[in-house]
């Protein structure tokens, strides 16, 4: 006897990918996530490929993972996918200290983030 199967949180025409513990502040990561929200996946991948931000590589990997999940696990059409959601969550913060003048200490915070990308299949309207 096992526990009952939980219902799927997403709709049948959606798939998602989550990347946890990215070493960047949520504020900086959200700038790149905002770049792809609501776009078709081909345009979003092109934007991330030519972005100057360092974290764009990791966001692109997460988007490619969401596309692969949609294609392989949910049999969705890759050409009809749109980035429905791209949101950032706050993870842990590593705290470090740096010595300052007159015996004081300066706190250094090294934040981590979570990234979730949800893609949705939309039917083309003529």
UniProtKB/TrEMBL annotation:
MF terms (GO), sorted A to Z: rRNA binding; structural constituent of ribosome
CDD domains membership: Ribosomal_L22
GO cellular component, one term: cytosolic large ribosomal subunit
A Pfam cross-reference name: Ribosomal_L22
Keywords attached to this entry: Ribonucleoprotein, Ribosomal protein, RNA-binding, rRNA-binding
GO biological process: translation
UniProt superkingdom: Bacteria
Keyword Ribonucleoprotein assigned: yes
Function of the molecule: This protein binds specifically to 23S rRNA; its binding is stimulated by other ribosomal proteins, e.g., L4, L17, and L20. It is important during the early stages of 50S assembly. It makes multiple contacts with different domains of the 23S rRNA in the assembled 50S subunit and ribosome. The globular domain of the protein is located near the polypeptide exit tunnel on the outside of the subunit, while an extended beta-hairpin is found that lines the wall of the exit tunnel in the center of the 70S ribosome.
The protein's assembly and partners: Part of the 50S ribosomal subunit.
Family membership: Belongs to the universal ribosomal protein uL22 family.
NCBIfam families: rplV_bact
Name by which UniProt lists this protein: Large ribosomal subunit protein uL22
Source species taxonomy: Bacteria, Pseudomonadati, Pseudomonadota, Alphaproteobacteria, Hyphomicrobiales
